Amino acid sequence: YYVAGSGNPSWGAVSLPTDSRPYRCAWHAAGPQVPDCQPGQVVLWDGAGYACQDGTAGSSNGNANSVEIVDSFGNAWDGIQRAQAATFADALSLCESLGGRLPTASEIFAARASNNPHTAIGDINDTSYLWTITRVGQSGERALVRVSDGAATHAAETSQQYFRCIWPSSRSDVLGGANCYGPPDSPCFKTADGALVADKYDRVALDAAGAINECLAAGGRLPDHGEVMALMREGWPNGTNAWQWLGEFIYWYNTGYGYPVYRWSGNGTSGWTYDSNNGGLSPATTYRNFRCVYSTLLK
Prior knowledge:
Layout: E1 2-3, E2 9-11, E3 41-45, E4 50-54, E5 68-70, E6 76-78, H1 88-97, H2 105-110, E7 129-135, E8 141-146, E9 152-156, E10 166-167, E11 188-190, E12 196-199, E13 203-206, H3 208-217, H4 225-233, E14 239-240, E15 244-245, E16 250-251, E17 257-262, E18 265-266, E19 279-282, E20 288-290, E21 293-295
Antiparallel strand pairs: 1-2, 3-4, 5-6, 6-10, 7-8, 8-9, 11-12, 12-21, 13-20, 14-18, 15-17, 16-17, 17-19
């Protein structure tokens, strides 16, 4: 963009990351940092800042269907899906009447059977798409995720779908502790200055709206380009080379709207750049993986 005199930005364009351009810095007010907690602890707001407190594992208190399964993250689940398919409202009502709720898309994905180093709540034969509470871009629809491989789709809330109830472990008030998605004993990645907290694993592939809603539910948001650059330079781990959503809506050409995406493999490096190999654009309706972040910068 450029600014003429004291006016508003007049024009926008796209530039290669290797081009030399003038720039201006901005300083944001700083919010509270998220503390480093022990495994099993959650991060709660105590009125003055975030603090670690001991969490508790989920329990169905005997209400799980068939048998209770507790995943690696302390969440208790129906051992098998409920026998009768139901609308979203009816499935939600049943789970809540039993002291639980419907899971988020990320919660099912974290307990999938395939390509998962942690405890699964089923096997590769559990191929029914299950209700989640996660809203997607289509009005009146919710994300569905299957246990077999963590694949996702969506359906109208009035449709009949199978489901499992979850009795979740204690949750944090912000993206920290158990709210991050990563190894259960150390799920969060944090920059050295403590300004950024992020997931260590990719979350379930969803449309842009679903990804935004999942991050909000976890107490975070999708990262912007500058935050991704900062995380890469400090070795953001477990890159899978899958395209990830950035949280910046963009118009590119010929009435095309969508979101930027990025990718990397292994651990991030100081040489990572958002270029034609590592960056791109995607329609908001495409299903992409994502990671959530929390930043102390208030913006």
